[in-house]
Prior knowledge:
Layout: H1 16-19, E1 27-28, H2 40-52, H3 62-76, E2 85-88, H4 91-101, E3 106-110, H5 115-122, E4 127-131, E5 133-135, E6 138-140, H6 143-153, E7 160-164, H7 176-188, E8 192-196, H8 218-222, E9 224-228, E10 242-245, H9 249-259, H10 268-280, H11 282-304, E11 310-311, E12 319-323, H12 332-338, E13 341-342, E14 344-345, E15 354-358, H13 363-382
Parallel strand pairs: 1-13, 3-4, 3-7, 7-8, 8-9
Antiparallel strand pairs: 2-10, 5-6, 9-10, 11-12, 12-15, 14-15
Helix pairs in contact: 2-10, 3-10, 4-5, 4-9, 11-13
Bound molecules: pyridoxal-5'-phosphate (PLP).
Pyridoxal-5'-phosphate binds at residues 32, 90-92, 113, 164, 168, 196, 198, 229, 231, 237, 242.
Amino acid sequence: MxxxxxxxxxxxxxSLKWGKYAGQEVLPLWVADMDFAAPPCVIAxxxxxxxxxxLGYGVVSKSLEETVVRYLQDAYxxxxxxxxxxxxxxxxxxxxxxxxxxxxxxxxxxPVYPPFLSAPVHSARALTRVPLAFRNNGWQMDxxxxxxxxxxxxxxxxxxxxxxxxxxxxxRAWTREELATLADFSVRHDLLVCSDExxxxxxxxxxxxxxxxxxxxxETERRSVTLMAPSKTFxxxxxxCAFAVIPDAALxxxxxxxxxxxxxxVNVLGLVACxxxxxxxxxxxxxxxxxxxxxxDRLETAVAALPGVSxxxxxxxxxxxxxxxxxxxxxxxxxxxxHGLGFSDGxxxxxxxxxRCNFGCAPxxxxxxxxxxxxxVKMLRAA
Length: 383
Ligand SMILES: Cc1ncc(COP(=O)(O)O)c(C=O)c1O
């Protein structure tokens, strides 16, 4: 089946991403949604559901549960039971629920997607940040630093680790070896691991496949909450549908206890879209990945030619993490906005001087963004 990606004009729509710069000549390359229309199979399923006309309270159908169970088996070889699934209106909700149920402080590796930093604060849990190591031109987990942080915390050592896998913003897809070392660390320190795997179907390295942290062993399964959703892969984050996989019954009860009274049911359209995407969205996703790979490669080549700017290989996600510190800008985001580019500010990820660039857009728009970027960087050199 031939699939094409549609990129309707989003200006003047209800888009958060585009609305930020309404009426300005700024290309939005910030918040993580893509400019591609959802897969036709998802649109068709939503239209069928809407044609029914009644939009009352919904339930998670048996067929949706079976679809997820089959998907996790086929995609990652992970044998999951339907009762392990807890449905959520979003992953950020899941991160916050985990912090709320944490019996102590929370550990996370920076730079990281901002809700990893705010969720512990919302639940008044102490947050321990351990920077990822930048070595051999790549990002790695810093295990000696993680150990040192646990030692330094003494009797107040964190009880929960928030893992971003693949990692936003550095674009790493953690390897089996890295995950196994992390698993060993989490067992020795008796940590609950919340693994945010929202980007797991966006692996851009063709020979790699996603390994859920929980899938490593019975031990990791027992101590983990895995958060997943069709929202990033199929570009439907506005439909608010996600799920946690929590194999351990006691942990699941604690998680659901922390949700009680504050987390609403998933809306009926989100559930319908999720089922259609997971069942029928495979061909669309393959096309998406080929476009994202091209965009990633194009951006990487362009950045390599620019003095004072660098990026590492994006193994997964559609987000590039740009080091612009050598440009010496006091306000990098503002400077590039003045030159027509709307990036995410690294400071929000605990890394001032860095920018996050969303390349989930039409190749033509990326080309335009690259020209503007090159011009803006060269102007600095000329000044
Ligand atoms: C790592 C990560 N987790 C969670 C989210 C957002 O999840 P949700 O919209 O389901 O709350 C994002 C969005 O960019 C993300 O990158």
